[in-house]
Protein: O-methyltransferase involved in polyketide biosynthesis
Organism: Amycolatopsis magusensis
Amino acid sequence: MVRVQLSGTKETMLATLWGRALDSRSARPVLGDTAADEAIGRLDYDFGKLMKPSMALSVALRAKSIDTWAREALAANPGASVLHLGCGLDTRVFRIDPPPDSRWFDVDFPEIAELRHQLWPELDERENYRVLATSVTDWAWLEEVPADRPVVVVAEGLTMYLRDAEAEGLFRRVVERFPSGEFVFDIFSKLGIKAQKMNPVVRKSGSTLYWGLDDSRELEKFGLELVDEHFAQQFASEEDLPKLPLVPRLQLAALRWVPAVNRMGRIVRCRF
């Protein structure tokens, strides 16, 4: 067993790992992330302390929506470098399984990188795969990624933990360094930031959220072009809706009548 001692923002990744694992155990999984389930069996940690099992479905739906757009972005940018920022213990590289001509960089703190190594040592041998053990906002890591090809930047559960200057710095630095590419990431509205303590994972981990945006078109000032966005009600695809239990389906349908809540969290796809 691998003992885990994390707190604050770093601890939140354990809740989403558990959510993906619980989804994989269901009779009709949305994401089917069996690697996540295998990982929690090797970790010495009380997974139930941050998140209720009922939240697992929303975790899986968000992850699958991001995966879908990330695959599309890779298809539109053959041979691109993938920058998976704030990767935590996400097994996205397994789920997407990028083509061999793509480079994949998982970026997160050194202690997270070490956990990934202990859980999935086979990744050390994966061709064109590398973990950059650093904070995303320590911009020196960008120099380790060759700028000779387009990039696909994927981030889940990251942007809301950035401060305003850090979010702007991230977008501007990537746009300035690489010839072209796409971003796929989730983002909170300003109401979502104000209501952050209603999120048990944020509250119980002692984390703080900072950056939110009400209008995704504001990203244009950082050199990005908005391609599409999905609000909470759209996280479940037409393919996945029949898999959902009745109550979650009704809850998603009800979001259309509460637009402020529906828009609190969204997934954005941009290009430059």
